Amino acid sequence: MNLDLEGRVALVTGSSNGIGAAIVRTLAAEGAQVIVHGRSAERAGRVAAGIVGNGGQAVVVTSDLSHDAGAESLVDQAVDAAGRIDILVNNAGVYANSTWEDATGDDWLATYNTNVVSVVRLIRCVMPAMRKAGWGRLIQLASGEASRPFANMPDYAATKAALVNLTVSVAHALAGSGVTANTVSPGIIVTDEVEKFYRDVAAREGWGEAWPEIEAAVLTHVLPNDVGRLGTADDVASVVAFLASPLSGFIDGANIRVDGASVPTIN
Ligand SMILES: NC(=O)c1ccc[n+]([C@@H]2O[C@H](COP(=O)([O-])OP(=O)(O)OC[C@H]3O[C@@H](n4cnc5c(N)ncnc54)[C@H](OP(=O)(O)O)[C@@H]3O)[C@@H](O)[C@H]2O)c1
Fold it and tell me: What is the per-residue pLDDT across 222-266, written as a single tens digit (0 to 9) for each?
């Protein structure tokens, strides 16, 4: 299937690592010009160099999204480098393994600021130009935890629920404009960081040392799913690429789960 992304410009926040890096690689392979973003120029530069080495088009932009100036600077740099933004993928996000006991009010505010308000800042910056162009895509990376939170990381889960909610609102606000807004909610996705996290848990819990044993333990003790494996960054990237494309024009205000059915079954 040709996703018709040739000539489109996509800004993917937090694409210096993990799921975001897979998203920019996929969009670039489909012909989009991608703007690789992170706080670290070195990490973002490595991802962009890999894309350019494979014949794709990529530029690097760095900024910290936890304040207004960082978001505005990101959009200014992206437009200077690529001329416009057709597709905004709000992927950057932080998660600490917090508990109800140790996450303070300030921790909740900091997580909300980075995971939610940064997204609001960027959407508000790009909305007017997308509306004027009559076409655009706003895609937020939420999480299965938006509707199925664990006991731990409550501040993180609440931010993801907020993203699902605000995406429906902005979809309505942009009704009839040609700009759509959707969320993608991954289950557990094995990025380098997630693998390291579960290797540490496995060492503590005695789940074994080989990754297949650890993966099986995560599926048993943390979050079972019907597919029987954990997700990959490419599983998420291909859904985001479809949503970013003109082919997704009738999908708006939706929350698409990419989690192998990590949901409770009703028997
Ligand atoms: N992995 C999973 O299992 C999973 C599951 C569900 C949802 N998600 C969501 O998917 C998204 C990507 O997750 P991931 O696991 O790929 O994350 P990751 O590997 O930790 O990468 C996070 C990215 O966000 C950037 N970032 C973080 N804070 C930032 C800030 N204040 N300003 C600018 N950039 C910032 C980082 O850039 P630098 O490090 O270069 O600064 C990095 O590129 C997140 O929104 C996450 O909540 C992940």
Answer: 999 999 999 999 999 999 999 999 999 999 999 999 999 998 766
> Which protein residue's CA is at the shortest distance from atom 19 of ligand 1?
18
Q: Which helix (H) or strand (E) holds 258?
A: strand 255-258
Whether the CB-CB separation of 91 and 141 falls below 8 Å is answered with yes
CA of 38 to the centre of ligand 1 (A): 9
User: Mean pLDDT in the chain?
Assistant: 97
Per-domain boundaries in the chain? 9-188+232-258, 190-230
Q: Enter the pTM of the model.
A: 0.98
- The ligand 1 site (C-beta within 6 Å) comprises 14, 16-20, 38-40, 43, 64-66, 91-95, 114, 141, 143, 186, 188-189, 191, 193-194
User: Is 3.30.565.10 the CATH classification of the domain at 9-188+232-258?
Assistant: no
- Residue 12's SS3 state is strand
Coil/strand/helix, residue 237: helix
Catalytic amino acids? 156
Whose CA is closest to atom 1 on ligand 1? 189
- Whether residue 213 is predicted with pLDDT greater than 80 in this model: the reply is yes
